[in-house]
Design brief:
Helix content is about 40%, strand content about 20%. With about 500 residues, it is of the alpha/beta class. It has 2 domains: about 270 residues, Aldehyde Dehydrogenase, Chain A, domain 1; about 190 residues, Aldehyde Dehydrogenase, Chain A, domain 2 (3-Layer(aba) Sandwich), CATH 3.40.309.10. A 7-stranded mixed sheet has the order 14-15-16-13-12-18-19, with helices on both faces. Helix 5 packs antiparallel against helix 7, helix 7 runs parallel beside helix 8 and helix 12 crosses helix 13. The longest helix is centred in the first third of the chain and has 21 residues. Bound molecules: adenosine-5'-diphosphate. The site of adenosine-5'-diphosphate has 13 residues, from helix 10 and helix 11.
Length: about 500
């Protein structure tokens, strides 16, 4: 697999030289096309979760720096170098950025693995996935069409324009250090917006690396700005309250999303939120069990379970319950755990101590409440401080934290059920509604269940479903708006209606 990826990399190198890994690691923030320190000169360290080693230092930027970044983005929004471009010219620039990211995929993946702990094969996969948003939105830039609406009265033309929203602030998490940025920035730039990005404090280096490549792609000064900080509240406050920011796009925890939503209320800002999930994964008696087990492992253990669409509660029907667990046990036992840069590693470390403590406490809570441990359920200090063994637990039920909360870790919690209705109602018994999965070979059941699950995205006989072409987003408290796909552009445009009257035939 890795060999195929490396081969593809060579083929897509466009004859340009590869940079060394250090040339893409930046130690400054990025405002108005310049690499800058924090206004108070503070920095913070970025560490490798696999071994705690410092891999870089970046500025600990302040509210003042955020104000500067917003001012730069506002100036660039109206500058002829950006506002004066045609959609096709923006598209070409984005394509150029895409090509540069493609050429530097190995280095970007190495940086990503170093700062997030993600196994290198997954990082390479994320470069492909993340970059596909730049490619997709480069194409979509040319199709942000307006409309002419038939007028109900004579002598009038009703015209709809789509114009850039303005300055967009993008606040992103650590679990997809590239894709969460490109999914937002690709759409925003395609629409003609300018952006201020605040990457997660655990993973700012991937973001800075691609910001550097945006310069080489010819994206004008001030169009992309990056504010690095581990004091996110004051920076977030500027982004939510500045009259010069037209919209916020946030991916992260539900609590922080709600806070930002409230902070945007006074300015009645456009807000797009992609928050936590509590994804059900239902295996019906009619399922192909081999496929269901493979899907369960892919959905649960990718990025060590740290994705918002990771399956969180596995509901398995009684007729296939024993077979599912037996097969799952064998496959989970074969997962290779270790440092993300090790060969064939599939399970890396958790991102930080807080995550590690959360996972351990959720498992301890389930043990206390008489859940049954089938595999794992223990840390691996022999590998490193933040490693946790892939875990299978059955007899999970309320009020166990594993049942009620998003675990965001390598713990697969299983619940046995009898009837289809029971599985659907338990799956929907949560405030979250991001992704859901189910396995069934019965076409009647497939449509029945798909219509009833209260989520924004469903994998039917599939454990991994995200792609640039499809709309990503949730219902209930999992968010507002959609990213990727042709819907993703809507978050970054204003619809303006023109009524041209008193026309004479
Ligand atoms: P997680 O639990 O996945 O780390 P968070 O919601 O805490 O999720 O973080 C997601 C992003 O939101 C990160 O970039 C983080 O720095 C940022 N963030 C956290 N708190 C705030 C805040 N008060 N204002 C703005 N951004 C914030």
């Amino acid at each position: 697999m890795l060999r195929t990826i490396l081969l593809k990399t060579k083929m897509s190198n466009f004859g340009l030289p590869q940079r060394s890994i250090s040339s893409l690691i930046q130690s400054k923030g990025f405002i108005n096309g310049s690499w800058v320190d924090s206004s108070n000169s503070e920095t913070f360290a970025v560490t490798n979760p696999a071994n705690g080693k410092v891999i870089g230092n970046v500025p600990n930027m302040t509210a003042d720096d955020a104000v500067k970044a917003v001012a730069a983005a506002k100036k660039a929004l109206h500058a002829p170098e950006w506002a004066g471009l045609t959609a096709k010219q923006r598209s070409v620039m984005l394509k150029c950025w895409y090509n540069l990211i493609e050429q530097n995929r190995d280095e970007i993946a190495k940086i990503m693995t170093a700062e997030s702990g993600k196994p290198i094969n997954e990082s390479l996969g994320e470069v492909t996935y993340g970059n596909s948003f730049i490619e997709w939105f480069a194409e979509e830039a040319r199709r942000i069409n307006g409309e002419v609406i038939p007028s109900p009265t004579p002598n009038r033309e009703l015209i709809v324009l789509k114009q850039p929203l303005g300055v967009a602030a993008l606040i992103t998490p650590w679990n997809f250090p590239l894709a969460m940025i490109t999914r937002k920035a690709g759409a925003a730039l395609a629409a003609g917006c300018t952006v201020v990005i605040k990457p997660a404090e655990d993973t700012p280096l991937t973001c800075l690396a691609v910001a550097k490549l945006s310069v080489d792609a010819g994206i004008p000064n001030g169009v992309i700005n990056v504010v690095t900080t581990n004091k996110s509240a004051p920076v977030g406050n500027v982004l939510c309250t500045s009259p010069d920011v037209a919209g916020i796009s946030f991916t992260g925890s539900t609590d922080v999303g709600k806070l930002l939503y409230r902070n945007c209320a006074d300015g009645v800002k456009r807000i797009s939120l992609e928050l936590g999930g509590n994804a059900p994964f239902i295996v019906f008696d009619s399922a192909n069990i081999e496929k269901a087990v493979d899907g369960a492992i892919a959905s649960k253990f990718r990025n060590c379970g740290q994705t918002c669409v990771s399956a969180n509660r596995f509901f398995v029907q009684e007729g296939v319950y024993d077979k599912f667990i037996e097969l799952l046990k064998t496959k989970v036992a074969a997962l290779k755990i270790g440092s993300g840069d090790g060969p064939d590693v599939q399970i890396g470390p958790l991102i930080n101590k807080a995550q590690f403590l959360k996972i351990s406490s959720f498992v301890d809570d389930a043990k206390k409440l008489n859940a049954t441990i089938i595999a794992g359920a223990k840390p691996r200090p022999d590998i490193g401080e933040l490693f946790y063994e892939p875990t299978i637990i059955t007899d999970v039920k309320p009020p166990m934290k594993l049942y009620t909360d998003e675990v965001f870790g390598p713990v697969l919690s299983i619940i046995k059920f009898k009837e289809e209705e029971e599985a659907i109602s338990r799956a929907n018994d949560t405030n979250s509604g991001l992704a859901g999965y189910f396995y069934s070979e019965n076409v009647q059941q497939i449509f029945r269940v798909a219509r009833k699950l209260e989520v924004g995205m469903i994998g039917i006989n599939e454990g991994i479903i995200s792609t640039a072409e499809a709309p990503f987003g949730g219902v209930k408290q999992s968010g507002i708006g959609r990213e990727g796909s042709h819907y993703g552009i809507d978050e970054y445009v204003e619809v303006k209606y023109l009524c041209l009257g008193n026309l004479k035939n």
